Amino acid sequence: MGTVTRLEMQDTAQARMTALLEGASIEVMPRTAAKVEDFGALLPKGSRVYVAHIEGTPIEDMVQTVRRLSDEGYAAMPHVPARIIPDLTAFEDWLKRYADAGACQALVLAGGPTTPLGTLTSAMDLLVSGLFDKHGFKRLHVAGHPEGNKDIDPDGSNAQVDAALAWKQGFAEQTDAKMAIATQFAFESGPIIAWENRLRGQGITLPIHVGVAGPTKLQTLIKFAIACGVGPSLGVLQKRAKDITKLMRPIEPTDLVQSLADHKAQTPDSLIETAHVFPLGGIKASAEWLSANR
């Protein structure tokens, strides 16, 4: 029996990462998309591109970005945050406009505001309306929180987020929509893998698209992590911050993704399907990292 060489091990590890990143997605905001001269120079045609809807962004800007991405050959997936939609009438108007612009998939969220703009308060309110199916949305992603979400579960438990995912699992089983869980970004694989194992134990079968932060300076990454409520894995960054020489160097998610790829390869029933890249350090840097690793 021959000895496995270091080069063969490296090739195997790279192949696993390539497989995990094959269907990876990325996201843009309308204002950042407007600065991109040519998406074809950054991303392969057919890539899924989420269009983030930050509170205060005009729906016209969202629709324009979705149309541009669709026209240029990308699978545009607009965020649809319940808490910034006035009512079901406005919600249906948004979906009609997105569909006319070429979208047939969406990321369905509660949204960031603590006080809803109208009567819609959760992703479930949007899903149960039946309007996604009515307007031809065939793929729907929902949010996942590997490290919990204190806005949803202030007591530090996972009771509410688990109950919501169980409901969404049931919804997926009763509809024709292709559904997946897109997660908040984290910085180490342990909490993500433990969460994924727990979901499988609860009967969740929805594929998981793990959120990772694209290449970003440590200072920037810590700022976003605190603002987004990233949990225990924030400690990984805080340890690195003690070394002042690392503060200005870009941090890449390569080690994290490699660990997840190894787990997926070794766990046949793993729910982890691919990665979703948050381009916190700019879409160009994230697109280049994706290109180099898949």
Tell me what you see in this structure:
The protein has 294 residues and is α/β, with parallel strands linked by helices. It has one domain: Alpha-Beta Barrel (TIM Barrel), CATH 3.20.20. The chain contains 12 helices and 10 strands. It has helices at 6-21, 30-33, 59-71, 88-100, 123-127, 131-134, 159-174, 189-201, 218-227, 234-241, 254-266, 283-293, and strands spanning 25-28, 48-51, 75-81, 105-109, 139-144, 178-183, 208-213, 216-217, 250-251, 272-278. The strands form 2 sheets. It has an 8-stranded parallel β-barrel with strand order 1-2-3-4-5-6-7-10, surrounded by 5 helices. The longest helix has 16 residues, at 6-21. The model has no long low-confidence stretch (mean pLDDT 90). Keywords: Oxidoreductase.
